[in-house]
């Protein structure tokens, strides 16, 4: 039976979001209805609102979510009613060329729900990242649900659904940081902080946070595990390289992560690494950006230049692990939650995020 619930949509480009009635159809054979308990407010949702993803309006926003499985389709075997889950946008298909090569983290045909949620007039909604979770209940494919320990706070655990996993994975999965290595993270918003926390978890011994905000830098050191901080606001690229090299016996870092996603920060990451170091881009560039590097400098350095998409994660492997580490006190997921709000305050949460006032605001549902 169809259900009508309240959810947040972006109806037109760069216009304020709206809380409105949304119709959820009966689940298809492999679909699941999840009662959302909490959903993080991510930059990607704001990009959907402002036309930075596509122009297929209206969008149902929200995707960093945790909740309870309420109803399942006839053929669902992956979860059952009552399961506590984090939603993900990498429900691997198992059949595409990436999956068949044994690299499901690059799956080209991830699963989404078989039906669209709609407005009351029948207008179909495009769900953000195939999820759409600024809503009381949402419809997803069973593979988008990852069961976790039900003792974890939904506001914290749900952040693994996107930004925190992106940062953690950039350090651990893409950067392959290991015990005793050094890492520098440029940009310590939510994703950058997660990269720092991941590096600490993996046993990195030199963890350098780089940003233009003294407040964020101090948090990186006090709360997330940075061993050194550098405010780059008034530094030339050469001065930044000198400071990083001074902290790494003159060599540069083993892993340099660009969590900003701009040509200038990528160049900084390129030059602050060791000659055989790994550069990881996890910040998302915009379409008009271009990158220029001296070709000889690219040739003259070993290591690797990598991009990290969703932290190269596999939700079924990674989400339960990191929730367990959170429950054990080894991973400070709760420290990413700077504000808790309600679904009618999403536009205000976007404003807070734009001002850099929070790592994450989280919408909570009763």
Topology:
Layout lengths: L2 E8 L7 E7 L6 E10 L2 H7 L9 E2 L3 E9 L11 E4 L9 H4 L17 E2 L6 E2 L9 E5 L3 E3 L6 H4 L5 H12 L7 E5 L3 H13 L3 E6 L2 H11 L3 E4 L5 H10 L6 E6 L4 H10 E9 L13 H5 L4 E4 L7 H13 L9 E5 L4 H9 L5 E5 L2
Parallel strand pairs: 4-8, 11-12, 11-14, 12-13, 14-15, 15-16, 17-18
Antiparallel strand pairs: 1-2, 1-4, 2-7, 3-5, 3-9, 3-18, 5-6, 6-10
Helix pairs in contact: 4-5
Organism: Corynebacterium anserum
Pfam family, one: ADH_zinc_N
GO molecular function: mycothiol-dependent formaldehyde dehydrogenase activity; S-(hydroxymethyl)glutathione dehydrogenase [NAD(P)+] activity; zinc ion binding
Describe the structure.
The chain has 366 residues and is an alpha/beta fold. 27% of the residues lie in helices and 26% in strands. Strands 3, 5, 6, 9, 10, 17 and 18 form a 7-stranded mixed sheet that branches. The protein has a 6-stranded parallel sheet with strand order 13-12-11-14-15-16, sandwiched between helices. A 5-stranded mixed sheet has the order 7-2-1-4-8, with no helix packed on it. Strand 11 (182-186), helix 5 (190-202) and strand 12 form a beta-alpha-beta unit. Helix 4 packs across helix 5 (190-202).
Which descriptors would you attach to this protein?
366 residues, alpha/beta, Rossmann fold, seven-stranded mixed β-sheet, six-stranded parallel β-sheet, ER, mycothiol-dependent formaldehyde dehydrogenase activity, zinc ion binding, S-(hydroxymethyl)glutathione dehydrogenase [NAD(P)+] activity
CATH architecture of the largest domain: Alpha-Beta Complex
Q: What is the tally of beta strands?
A: 18
Largest sheet properties: 7 strands, mixed
Number of helices: 11
Structurally, the number of domains stands at 2
Return the string of H and E elements: EEEHEEEHEEEEHHEHEHEHEHEHEHEHE
Structural class: alpha/beta
Beta-strand portion reads 25-35%
Protein name: S-(Hydroxymethyl)mycothiol dehydrogenase
GO biological process, one term: formaldehyde catabolic process
InterPro entries: ADH-like_C, ADH-like_N, ADH_Zn_CS, ER, GroES-like_sf, MycoS_dep_FDH, NAD(P)-bd_dom_sf
Organism: Corynebacterium anserum
């Amino acid at each position: 039976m169809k259900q009508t619930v309240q959810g947040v949509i972006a109806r037109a480009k760069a216009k304020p979001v709206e809380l409105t009635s949304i119709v959820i159809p009966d689940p298809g054979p492999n679909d699941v209805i999840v009662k959302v308990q909490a959903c993080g407010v991510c930059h990607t949702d704001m990009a959907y609102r402002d036309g930075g993803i596509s122009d297929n309006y209206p969008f149902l926003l929200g995707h960093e979510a945790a909740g309870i499985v309420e109803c399942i389709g006839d053929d669902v075997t992956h979860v059952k009613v009552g399961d506590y889950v984090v939603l993900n946008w990498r429900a691997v298909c198992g059949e595409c060329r990436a999956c068949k090569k044994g690299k499901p983290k690059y799956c080209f045909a991830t699963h989404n729900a078989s039906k669209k949620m709609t407005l009351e007039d029948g207008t179909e909604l495009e769900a953000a990242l195939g999820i759409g979770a600024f809503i009381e209940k949402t419809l997803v494919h069973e593979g988008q649900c990852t069961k976790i320990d039900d003792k974890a706070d939904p506001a914290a655990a749900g952040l693994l659904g996107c930004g925190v996993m992106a940062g953690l994975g950039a350090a651990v999965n893409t950067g392959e940081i290991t015990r005793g290595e050094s890492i520098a993270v440029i940009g310590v918003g939510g994703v950058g902080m997660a990269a720092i926390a991941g590096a600490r978890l993996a046993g990195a011994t030199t963890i350098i946070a780089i940003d233009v905000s003294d407040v964020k830098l101090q948090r990186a050191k006090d709360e997330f595990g940075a061993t050194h901080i550098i405010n780059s606001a008034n530094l030339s690229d050469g001065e930044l390289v000198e400071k990083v090299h001074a902290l790494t016996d003159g060599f540069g870092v083993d892993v340099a992560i660009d969590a900003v996603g701009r040509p200038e920060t990528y160049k900084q990451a390129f030059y602050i690494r060791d000659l055989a170091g790994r550069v990881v881009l996890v910040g998302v560039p915009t379409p008009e950006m271009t990158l220029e590097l001296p070709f000889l400098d690219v040739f003259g350095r070993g290591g690797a230049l990598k991009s990290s998409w969703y932290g190269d994660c596999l939700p079924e492997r990674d989400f339960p692990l990191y929730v367990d580490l959170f429950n054990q006190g080894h991973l400070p997921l709760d420290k990413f939650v700077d504000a808790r709000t309600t679904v009618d305050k999403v536009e205000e949460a976007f404003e807070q995020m734009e001002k850099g006032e929070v790592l994450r605001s989280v919408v909570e549902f009763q």
